Amino acid sequence: MRVDIVTIFPTFFDVLDISLIGKARGSGLLDIRAHDLRDWTHDRHRTVDDTPYGGGAGMVMKPEPWGEALDALLTPEAVLIVPSPAGEVFTQPTARELSAEAHLVFACGRYEGIDQRVIDHYAQSHRVRLISLGDYVLNGGEVAAMAMVEAVSRLIPGVVGNPASLVEESHEDGLLEYPSYTKPAQWRGEDVPPVLLSGNHGAIAQWRRDRSLERTERVRPDLLPEAPGA
Ligand SMILES: O[C@H]1NC=Nc2ccccc21
């Protein structure tokens, strides 16, 4: 998978050089590149924003630099992802969908966002998706893009060493993950649940399922299968 990220803070994505994503980049499984939007400006101040038509606080990102950057980076099959609080909420099914794509281009907006004409222009020729991380306010799209790149990349075969570890995870089966334990069997007077030491795989699977349902019911009842809209 190829991933292009356009941002005014390209060094923000240096962190992608480490850990699993870094290894996958090295092995060619992932081709992730961060680009500085200002490379597509031509004035002395490398201007990327201006005051909003209609007035109001804040600044809006100008369409020209975005047009030049996206013309340079988009391929016909690319999905243009615009992190935005006005977008669909990013979920594990979204991550799974996007992990099947060949090319993702993230347009990270700052300030009050990107001139709407950029989104409308590319929607005529490409699949464009506005995606929100959730109902809270960030200063720009970079943190959202980072979260999405990690959630999507780890689903690509070969990126995460043991694919089985992708299955028993929170939200993979639609429920929250059961609690996990490792050695020592006793710690500060607390014992590991005995069933986990029993070697009875059927009982262990049942215990884990019960804990997963219990936790989901307590913390995220909206995820339960019979919940409306689940
Ligand atoms: O305001 C944030 N809320 C959720 N997602 C976002 C994505 C990009 C920019 C800003 C946000």
Short description:
With about 230 residues, the chain is an alpha/beta fold. It contains six helices and nine strands, in the order E-H-E-E-E-H-E-H-E-H-E-H-E-E-H.
Measured distance between first and last alpha carbons: 30 Å
Order of helices and strands: EHEEEHEHEHEHEEH
Give, in spatial order, the strands making up the sheet with the most strands.
2-1-6-5-7
**Main sheet overview:** 5 strands, parallel
Using the alpha-carbon principal axes, give the shape.
elongated
Helix/sheet category: alpha/beta
Radius of gyration using CA atoms only: 22 Å
Helix segment tally: 6
Tell me which ligands are bound: 3,4-dihydroquinazolin-4-ol
- Which ranges are low-confidence, i.e. pLDDT below 50, for 5 or more consecutive residues? none
The helix content, as a percent range, equals 25-40%
Number of strands: 9
The percent range for strand residues is: 15-25%
Residue-averaged pLDDT: 93
What does this structure look like?
- There is one protein chain.
- Helix content is 29%, strand content 18%.
- The chain is of the alpha/beta class.
- The strands form 3 sheets. It has a 5-stranded parallel sheet with strand order 2-1-6-5-7. A two-stranded antiparallel ribbon has the order 3-4.
- The protein contains 6 helices and 9 strands; from the N terminus they run βαβββαβαβαβαββα.
- Residues 83-85, 132-134, 136-138, 140-141, 144 line the site of 3,4-dihydroquinazolin-4-ol.
